[in-house]
Amino acid sequence: MNIFLNFSRHFRHNRLSSIIDMLSLVPGLACCLLIVMWIVGQVEVDRSFKDIDRITTLQGYHEGRSPFWGVSPAVAPTLKMERPEVEKAVRLCSAARTVKYETESFGISAYDADYDLFDLFHLQVVEGRPFVEGERDRCVLTRQAAQIIFGNKSPLNQPLEFEFGTFTVCGVIENLPKQRTVARQGREEIIFLPIERRQEGLDAWYNNSFESYVLLKNGTDYEKFAAEVKDRALKAQPESKLYIKTEKLKDRYLYAYGHIREVRLMGLIALVILLIACINFVNLSTAAFSQNAVQTGIRKVVGASRKSLVFAYLSNAFILVLISYFLAFLLAYAIVPIFGTIIGSSFSVSDLIRPEVFWIGGIMLIVTTLLAGLYPSFYLSSFQPVKVLKGRNAVGLWSARLRQSLVILQFVVSITLIVCTLIISRQIRMYQTMDLGYKWDEVLYVSLRNQSQVQKAFVLRDELLKDADVRSVSVSTSLPTAIYWNGVGFNWEGKDPSENPLISMLFADKNFFEVYNIQLKEGQFFTESQDGVIVNRKLADLIGEDVLAKYFQNDNEGPKIKILGVVDQFLFNDFKAVEEPLVIFPIVPEERDWVNIVNIRVTGGKLGEAYDRIKKRAEEIFGEQPVVRFLNEDVEYWLTSEKQTSRMVSFFSVLAILISCLGLFGLATFMMEQKRKEIGIRRVNGAKISEIVWLLNINFLKPILIGFIIACPLAYYFMSRWLESYLRRIEISWWIFILAGALTVAVALLTLLWRSLKAAMENPVNSLKSE
C-alpha cells in the first residue's frame, strides 16, 4: 500500500513529466505489441503442424537460379524407396479449380495427394476416413469445403464431379491452418484426391510442379541428408542440370521466401520505438531533478538509505510503466483492425491475445521498467543532502551530457527511419512506373477453370471481339506475369551440345502481341495458318547471327520449326526476375487443350464498364460463373511484400518522430521553467522576443543537427544493403537525406516554437517579482 501512496504523491508532484512519460510509453508500447503480434504470426507459419522439426520440403533448382515451387513427381517416392532415413513421402499437385455437385458448380481447389498426406501432417479426421493406397475414386474434403458444398448435410458417400471423373467422398478433415505454405496459402476449402488417379507421368523426372515433402526419422543428420540427395535428379536425367534443394518446412516461409528480413526489420523498429520512449522517461526524470532533489535530501537526512530510495523510485517507474502497459494494450486492442488495414494484412483481436504475445509483452514490461527506471533511480538517490538543502545545483555535467546524448540518439533513429521510408517508397514507385516491355494497364483476363471452359475459349475470344470497347483478345497458356520454364530442353542450328540454357516458353495466338503491345524487332509475327515461333532478344542473342534463317526444336528428335521473328525483351514473372530467354509457340483452335487464359485489352477509360459486360458474356458462353480479373492487380501483387514493409516503416517512422518531439517538448518545458528569471532579466534589458526564442531553441537544434550528421551514413549503409536484393534498383539521391533532415527540423521547431514563444512573451514582472 505504501508503494501506491508513494506513487500517487510522486505523480502529483511530477504531473507534467509523468503525463509526458505516459504519452510516450502508451503509443510506443501499443505499437510494440502490434509488431509482436505480427511477428508471432509470421514466425508461426507452418509451425502448427505436428512433427514440424522432421518435415522437409523438396524443390528443384538450377545453379544460380531461384528454386521451383516443387520438384518432379518421381523425386519423393524415389527418396522414400532409396533412403532409409525417409519415413514418409508426400506429393501435392493442383488438380482442378472447380467441382460440381448435382447441378451446382463450386470454385474450390482440388489437389492430388499421396495417401500418406494425412499421417505426415497429422490431419484430424472429423467424419469418415481418409482414402488409402489403391483407392482411385475417393476424395477427402476439409470441413470448410464440406460446409460450402453440402451445408449441414453429411457429405459421406456423396459423388463429386470433376472434368476428369467422378469421386466419392470418403472423409472430412479439419481445416488446414490459415498460416501455412502447404497446399499454397490462405484458403481453407480444399478437396484432396488420390494422386494414383493419374494413370501416367508419376514416374517422370521433369515437370517441377509437385509440392513434395518427406518426413525424416528421429535422429537423422539433416545436413548429411541434404548433401546426399542434392544431385539425385541430376543422376536420373543429366541433361536437365537439375538439383534438389531441401528446406525444413518450419523455415520455408521465413528463409526460403525471404520474410525473415521483414521480421528482423520490424523487430528492430519495435526495439527502437521502445528505446525512444524509455529515453524520454530517463531525460524527463533527470531533468525534473529540482522537484525531487530537496525531497530526496530530506529523506536522507531523516535516515533513508540509498537502497530504499532506489527501491522507491524504481517502484514508481514500475507502476507508471504498468499503467502505461495496460493503457497500451487497450489502445492496441482498439486499433488492431486499423493496423491490419495500414499494412495490408488481416488481423483479429484473437491474434493480440495469443499466449506468445502475452509472454513477450511481460518481458517488454520488465525490460521497459529497467531501461526507463534504473538510471533515474540511482541518479536521483545519489544527491548529497547538504548540497540540495542549501539550494545548490545537484545535477552534474555528466548527467547533462548524457541527456543530450540520448536526445541525439533519438533523432539519429528517427531520421534514419524517415530516410528508409523515403527510399523504400521510391523503390516501389520505380517498379510501379517502370517499363516492363509490355502494356499491362487496361487489360482484363479470364482464367479458365476446367476443360469445358477451355473448349469454348476461342468462341469467347471471337464473341468478345464484337464488343465496341474491346480492342483485342488473345488466348494463351499463361499471363506475362506467370511464364515459367518447365524442364523441356531446346535445340537450334549451331547450338553448342555442351550448353543447355534454361528457356521459358509460352503458347499464344497471333493477337497476344497486340493485346500487350509487345514490339517486333525483326521478322514477322506468326499467323494461325503459318507455323513458326517467335523468340525474344535474349534468346536471339543465344542463338547467334542470322536468327531468322535458323530453325528451332523442342528436343533432338522433335520437328524443326522456323524462327519467324524476334520481339523486344519484356519482363515476365516478377520485378526481381532476371531477363530470361523466351520462345513463343503459336496456338491454334486444334490445340485448344493448351489454353488457360483469355487476354482482353479494353479501350482506354472503359475498363470498369467493359468488365461487367465481359463477365456476363463469358457466363453465357460457359454456362457457369467465370473468373475475370484485372491484370494490374497481378502486377501490384508482385509488390505486396515491399508495400507492406513501406507502410509499416512509414507508420512507425512518424510515431518515432512524434515521441521524440514529445520528449523534446518536455525537456524544453523544464529548461524554460529554470530560465524564467533569466528570460525576465533579458526582457527588462531590452531583448527582443525573436532573440529570446532563438536563444531558447538553438540549444535544442544542435542535437538534432548532430543526429542528422550521424544518421545519414547509417541510413545510407542500411538501405544500400537492402537495395542489393533488387536486380533493378534506384540510386540513393542526396536530396532524400536533406528532405528527411528538413522534415525532422520542421516538426521539432513546431514542437518547440509554441513553448518558447509562451516563455518569451511572459510578463517579466511575474518571473522577477520575488527578487
UniProtKB/TrEMBL annotation:
Organism classification: Bacteria, Pseudomonadati, Bacteroidota, Bacteroidia, Bacteroidales
Entry's family note: Belongs to the ABC-4 integral membrane protein family.
Localisation: Cell membrane
GO molecular-function terms, A-Z: transmembrane transporter activity
A GO cellular component entry from the record: plasma membrane
PANTHER family: ABC TRANSPORTER PERMEASE YTRF, MEMBRANE COMPONENT OF TRANSPORTER-RELATED
UniProt name for this protein: ABC3 transporter permease protein domain-containing protein
Superkingdom of the source species: Bacteria
Keywords: Cell membrane, Membrane, Transmembrane, Transmembrane helix
Domain MacB-like periplasmic core: 20-231
Transmembrane intervals: 20-40, 265-289, 310-338, 358-381, 402-424, 649-671, 692-720, 732-754
Pfam family, one: FtsX
